[in-house]
Structure formats: C-alpha cells, structure tokens
C-alpha cells in the first residue's frame, strides 16, 4: 500500500475522477448502470476503504442539503472505527486523544508525504468535535421535549388562581433557580454565601448556564424578574350585578333639555361679551404700552441741536397728520380716530445715523385739515419731566400748550432746557415741589411710592380728631408698597396714629388690619404686622394695649397654625398675667377665646386650660364675664373635640366644688349603700351650716351651667341611634321651648351644632331611643347618670341653707340639666336619684327627721322641688309637686324638725308667680289640718309668700287664712301667725287689708288672756321691732304705747 496512491492527499481525491483512468474505469462498467449516482460512488469509496475521501464527500453533501443515508449510517456507527489488538499501530505512531475517532486510519499516515500529518490530524479532530456537538444538541433537544411534555401535563398546569401549595419543584427548575440565586449572590458581593451555596450543590456547574440541561434562553436576573412580576399579575376585583332604574318621564327630559339649552345660550352670550371686553382691553393695553414707551424714551434722550417731540394724541373730532422732518429725511404719520392709538418717535429714529452725521434740527410741523400754520396742543398727560433722582429736585417743565413756529431757529436742546430752568425756577430744596414734579410720568406704582414718601409728613399735621380719616390711605399704601422698610414705617404710623384710640377708632384700625391680612397673606402678616403689635404690648397707655390685645384675636384666623400656637398665644399669656388693667385683661380673654377656636396643636390643651383657670379666678367682674361667655365655650368645644369634656373639664369643676365643701370622697361609693337616705341624714348635720367661699362656689356653678349644652351635645352625637340618622325621612320640627334660654350665643346648642335640621333629627332619635322601657346605654350617658348627678346631689346636701344664692344657683343648674336632657331622661334617670334621698324608711323616719339628719332638712328639698318638679310644668307634675310639698310639710311638722329646707323650697318656688296658687293650696291644707303642729307650721310659712304675692291673693287667700289661724284654739298656732301678720304690715299698702290686720293685732294687744303668755309677748315685740320702721306713723305710735305697757 506504500506504493499506491495516498487516500489522504486532497489533490488526488479531488482529481481522481477527472483522470483518464477514471473515465476508462467508468466506461468499463457497463454491467452496473449507465447512470452514476452519489450512492454508488459512496459505496465504492467505502468498499475500497477510501474512508477520508468518503468523509469529505459526506461533509460536502450535508452542507449542500443532499445527505446520503449510506454515509450517514456509516459515520454515525462508532463500531466501524474501533480497533482490535491485531490492528494496533507501531509504538512510534502518535495517537489521538479520542476513543471514538478514526484510530484505524493511523496506518495511512505512513505516507511518503510526511508534511501533511499535522493537517490530517486537525481535520480528524474537527470532525470529532462536530460529531460531539451534534450529539449534545440531540440530547438537549430530547430533554427539552421531555420537559415540555411534563409541564403541559394536568399535574403541573397552573390555574388562574396560582400554583397549588402541594406542587413539587422539578429538577430542571431547581437547577435554573440555583443558577439565578448564585448569580444574584455574586453580583451583590455575597461571596462567602455564594461559595457555601456552591459547595452544597456540588453536582451543578454554576459557571455555565448550559449545565441546567435545557436548550432554552437564559432568563434575566432575579431583580429583573421581581420588577417585571407586577406586569403579569392582574388584581382580582370583586364584582356584583347591580340593577338601576332608567325610566325618566319624557316631560322631565324635555324640561331638562330646555334648561340646558337656555344655560348654553346664556353661557355663549357671556363668552361673546367677555371676548368683546378682551378686545377692548387689548386695545387699551396697546395704547398704554405705547404711552409707557413714550415716557421711557422722552426723559432719556439728550440729542444736541434737536427738540424732543414726545407724542401726539389724536383729536377725537378729526384726523391729525404729523409730519416730522430730520434734515433730509421726512416721515409722515397719519393718526385716525378709528385707530385710537399713538405714533411716537422710536429710539431708532431718534438716534439714526443721518441724525448723528448731519446734526440737523428737528422741525415739528402739524398739519390740521391741510393748514400748515395751525398749532398743536399737547395733552397734559405727556409732559417731559426730567428728574434728577440723586439731586432730588432738578426738573424741566414744559408749557402745557406748545406753539412751535420756529422752523428756522437753530437752538440747541440744552439751551432750551437751561432757558426754561432760568425762566421758571424751582428750588431744589423744596420737597413738595419735587414730589409734584414727579406726578407727570408716574404710574400706579409710582403713586403708591409717592404716598409712602408723603404720608409720614402728612400725618403729624392732621388734627387728632380727624386722623382716622387717614386709616384707609395708610392701609392701602402699606399693602401695595414695594419697599419693606416703607411698609414697616407705614404700619408703625398706623399703630401710633392716635395717641389714645377709643373703641370706634380701634375698630377702624382693626378692620384695616384685617383687610391688610386678607390682601398680603400669612407670610407678610407675620413679618410686618405682628412686630408692630409686639412693640406695643407694654405701652404705657391702656388704649394702645387694648388695641394690641384686640388685634391678636382679630388676626388669629389669618396667621399660620404654628404662629397661632406659639407667638400669638405667648403674647396673650403675657398680657393676661402681667397687665393690671381689667379692660385689657377682658380684651385678652376675649381674644384668647377666639384664638383657641383656631389652634390645631393638641399639645397646647393644657396651657389653654391653665389660662382658662387663670381667667376664671380673676377678681374683675368684666374678666369673669368674658371668661364665662367667650373663653369657656370656646375651650369646651376644643375639649369636646379631644374627648376630654367629661373626664377632664367637667370633672375638674366638680372636684373644686367638692374641695370647697371639704368632701373629697367618691360619690359613687357613698351611693352604693342600701339606705341612701340614712347616709344623707348623717351628712346633713355636718354641712348644713358649712362655711364656704360663696363667690367661688357660685362661679363654679355658673361654669357648669355654661357647659350643660356641650355635655348634652356629647351625649347626643355618640348614641347608638346615630347609625339610623340617615333613615329619618322627614324633617322633625323642634319645639322652640325644648331647650332653656342660653346665657350667651356661644352656649346656644343650635349655634354649637350649626344645623337646625341635624339637631332636630338627633333630638328626635334621642327622645325616641331613651323613651323605651329598656335601652342599651352608652359611655357618655352613663357618665351623666352615674357620675354627674350623684356628685351634684352630694354637693347639694353639703350646702348650707343659709346661702340663698347658692341654693338658687343649684336649683337653676339642676333645672337646666333636666330641660336640656329632656322629660324622659328626667323621669327615668334623675327623679329616681332624688326619690332615694327623700323617701326615708319608716323605722328611721321619726328619729332621724326629729334630729334633722335627713335629706328633708337639707338643700335637696328646694333643689328637687324647684329644679326637677317644675321643669316641664305639666298638670301631672304640678299635682305631684303639691302632694310632695304637703308630705314634707306634714312630716316635718309631726317630727318637729327644722323647717329650713321647706322654707328654702317655698322661697324658690315663690319667685315664680305661676306657683303662687299651688303654694297657697298646700298651705291651706295645713291650715285646715287637725294637728296643731301642722297648723302652726302653715302659719309660719305664710310669711315667705307675702312679699311676692299680689294684693288680690293677699286679701282673698292669705288674710282669711291668717285670721282663721289667729283665732285657733291652740296658743302656739296663734303665736305662729304673728310674723306673717307683721310681714303684711311691712309690705302691703292696701288699706282694707291693713285695717283687718290692725284689728287682729289690736286683739293681741288688748285681750287679757295674752297678758300672761310670755312667748306671745316676745314674738309680738320681735315682730314690731322688725316692721315698725316700715309701717304707718299711726301704727308706730300704737306700737310705742304697747311697748311701754308691756315693759
């Protein structure tokens, strides 16, 4: 074979079938076929062991798309190239590194041509590489197909709701995720974690994505997958089928359409009118802009040998043609009435090269209706004034009417200017003349600037009584002036305008301050106006300090929240603590009430409460009134918003009342006893005559009265019925007498809520809810029932009956609570509390009442009678009141108990004329009673009614009852009538009544049976001493005579 042709030589392989021997060979094979095919050639090559040639042929056929099955099967079978021991080459022959290559072809390398051995080996290795790649691609394709089949099976199919929780991760997914996780760790510098992760997954190569095992595209990194997740997730929205009615009456549609058409037409007309106005304003703007250009050009041009024309205003009756000639240049400008504009000389014309070079004069020729000799009258608005700002007084004034016929005059502009200054001299030191000279070319802003300069000189020369006339001018100038220093000076003038401004003048200044605040905004208001207030906070004049205090309140709503709760609050706090004038403190308290209504910082609540406490302890009645009627309602609103009304504000006031009485124990524990009447009896003896600060006590009760509407609002707006407020179909009319009269506007509950309809509906639902036999209570109502009412009862028990004003204030407070909270609440919640005290057990009745240790001898009786039982003035309540008073009268009489509580009740009830008849009926029941104790008590009670009852009742009801009791068989009963008879002598002027009383007293004087009645004599003397000074002179003489006899 060494002598034969080398099958690995390319030239021989390429030219083998082109040689004559090949043609001869082909011709000598007529037995096979006349057509030579590629398959026969491949068979021949394989048969003759031309393996390399067959390989090259196979490669070229594959590249051209004509692959032969014979060659493909041959080269795809590794068994065709395996070697046996007999076929092993010589030891000196180099081998390839592959075990599945053409090792059997190594013998063919022993060719005469040794230079081709390297090339032949490279070709074999390239073939092996291509085969390996084909095998890998085939295996990956098979794996991918299997993976896709697994993913499409129902077991692993995702639903619209997401992956099932029991899905198992497949190996392919595990390798892919491991690769992405490792990549993320490396990119974010978690190297140690990446190394640990790689060691735990030794079976995977993290350097090559192909190790994952799929011929699919590599996904992006984890961060990209996370960011892109939201683009593929559709949120699940819950939907419901809703039906709506769309039937609308055709007439309504037509009416709505007509209304819409009318509205559309009106809007179109309005748009048209506005467009016309815009056109007019644009024309006016153009005219004004031309004027501004003229004013800017005129004073700045100073061209030698030229006269400076400014502008020519058109004549409204005829057209004017202005011809302006420069040396060899002639320009003509025609101004018509329809154009309504001005034609000024521009800067380019004034400084043209021709003007500079020729230096010729400017001649103004006015042609009016073709007449060259007529003069032109310049308008007053366009005079040329040159003001030297630095010198402050240099001006050039042109005559109002300019007639220029000097066409041939060669006069320089500087000479003309000097001539005018010499002929019409104005002093440079005259301030007013300098200001007047600036008016000609001043616009709106210049006017404001001029006012800023002039007002400081005007104000001192205005009479004090008329200086308030300057307030609008000062405020307007301060608002519009551009210089902050000038604004500060003007505002300082405003606050110092009047030495001692009275109330009306202060109102004018404050109104101006409010207008200033509305115009400039909170920033400038804080920076410019507040410092003026701060400077005057300690002014020696009270009127100035009043102005500062009132300004703080008036400006509070226009300042930022931070300034309100810091600077403004600090100023008012300082004035409240340090100012000694009560008028200033009153104004401060009113401003504090206004300020607290706008404070949003809840941390300032405690400071506000301290200021309220300080104001309510002030010794001035003015300050106290302002604190009660302005500051307290404002603070109560804030306290209610923060949920601190009951447990802080009201609790603090009640605690002060208890401290004044000296009872610090909790009222809840005191009312937990099974015998509340006995407990009240034990306390009554201690506190009946308790000394207390009456003024402070009355003030605290007044505070509670002011807070009752706010407490009711808290109960009203938190009830369970509020959920059904929207279901109230009709407006519920509110009874005008439903609530008691408010002491001030800020305590009116309709004003506090702000909506009468809302209030009426809430009251309707509230009454309906609590009128039920059983209802579920809520926290605010429980606080009133279980905390407020018991503590007020305890306070009432501790008040001494000698303090008539305190007793009256307690009655008014309880009555206000009952009227505000309604009849149902009073019947079901308040009356049972009082009944527990006044209804004593039978076994303790005689002993406790006799000692005066019961609620019947305390302030509970007047409070219950005048505060609870007379609230709603119904017939049933009047009957119950009369029966209650009878029972108390009889009980106290039988037990010989003190009558102070009953007398206090009669005094409070007697202050209302509507109760006189009821009281007389009660006393008449005592007059006709069988017990002398009861009759004696009734006789003494008449004294309390005589002062307030009219003469008719005195003559028809009181005097007959007293005469009957004066003739009673029992002496103690007769003695009990003497004080009442004396009261008639002291207060009644009716002659018939007085005569009857005189007769009865004369009986007491002259009857011998009374001479030995020491008690009778003492009572007569005491009564005569009391009433003698207020009786007629005749009776006084008789009294003297009786006293002499008895002595």
TrEMBL record:
PROSITE patterns: HEAT_REPEAT, LISH. This is LisH domain-containing protein. GO terms for cellular component: recycling endosome; trans-Golgi network. Residues 19-33 have a biased composition (Basic and acidic residues). HEAT repeats lie at residues 958-996. The keyword Coiled coil applies. Residues 1-33, 76-98, 335-360 are annotated as: Disordered. GO terms for biological process: intracellular cholesterol transport. It comes from Patella caerulea (Rayed Mediterranean limpet). Keywords: Coiled coil. Residues 257-291 form a coiled coil. InterPro entries: ARM-like (IPR011989), ARM-type_fold (IPR016024), HEAT_type_2 (IPR021133), LisH (IPR006594), RELCH (IPR040362). Residues 89-98, 335-357 have a biased composition (Polar residues). Residues 8-18 have a biased composition (Acidic residues).
